[in-house]
Amino acid sequence: MKTLISFFCLILLLACKKDIAQKTVENNDSTSYLDYSNKDDQFTGGIKMIPIKTSKGTFKVWTKRMGNNPTKRVLLLHGGPGGTHEEFLCFDGYLPNEHIEYIYYDQLDSYYSDKPNDSSLWTTEHFVEEVEQVRVALGLNKENFYLYGQSWGGILAMEYAFKYQDNLKGLIISNMMASAPAYGKYANEVLGPKMDPAIFKEIMHLEAKEDFDNPRYSELLMNHYYTEHILRMPLDQWPEAIHRLFNHMNPNIYIYMQGYSEFGITKNATLKNWDVTSVLKTIEVPTLVIGATHDTMDPEHMKWMSEEVKNGQFLLCPNGSHLAQYDDQKVFFKGLIDFINAVDTDSF
What we know:
The active site is at 151 (nucleophile), 295, 322 (proton donor). α2 (124-138) packs across α3 (152-164) and α5 (197-208) packs across α6 (215-229). The protein has an eight-stranded mixed β-sheet, with helices on both faces. The protein has a domain at 49-180 and 271-344: Alpha/Beta hydrolase fold, catalytic domain (Rossmann fold), CATH 3.40.50.1820. The radius of gyration is 23 Å and the shape is globular. β1 (47-54) and β2 form a beta hairpin. The chain is α/β, with parallel strands linked by helices. The chain is built from eleven helices and eight strands.
């Protein structure tokens, strides 16, 4: 009997030690994730101004690292062109809890980075090479590098993957179709007619006159289109970070590449004919495509994209729009986190 009691005591002791060890590991992981000591960016709180070599000289772009994880590091490509990392600030509410490292990044000519204001640099080719230089500077590689692109950032992420997918561990294309003409067709033939006919007619009238600077044009878009398809909340409830994003937008690069209109890319904008539908099948890296029911982008097209790439998955945010990380937050982040963890554990 004494031997049996001793045996059970031994089992209990080992279980307690295992529990303590597990808690120690978890605590050490947490400490490690938040520990910036002995890192070259500790002094700046994770911020690095990375030199980018271009045909017009060397300029610096702003990045900020959040957390530490040697196998899960996500570089965030913002929209626009000419937007900022501020559209991703809500990631702070979810990714740290999962010990996922992520890196904010303002592209050249965006608010926190240098602004040479040289349109010869406003090409997909330039921005792909810019991302590659950022990757090298941050030590991102096949063992840890997830590239996330939203809207215009989705275009950039696809273009990067076409050239440099051997550097990627995972790819996330969020709220972006693979064809600018198809995006314009969807906006004009599907989303526009869903609006109040009088409002849509007035918007089209102003666009026909190219009266884009008319305050009425912005008023109509903000109150009748953006609150339905960009962020599905009343304007006075939009997060402060999104108001900052709009205030910090660089209109010069946005108009040059995207144009004035939200109903497709206007006639002289450089992305007007961009279309990569025929080459999506060359992307072999694990890929998550995120769409939303109320997005400016066609969710059915984005589902098709996830089936066209070699190793894809589709996440639909049923209550979301173009900024689904805010208006369908729980679905968005669960899907994003599950994808990153699945790729990391080779269970995707």
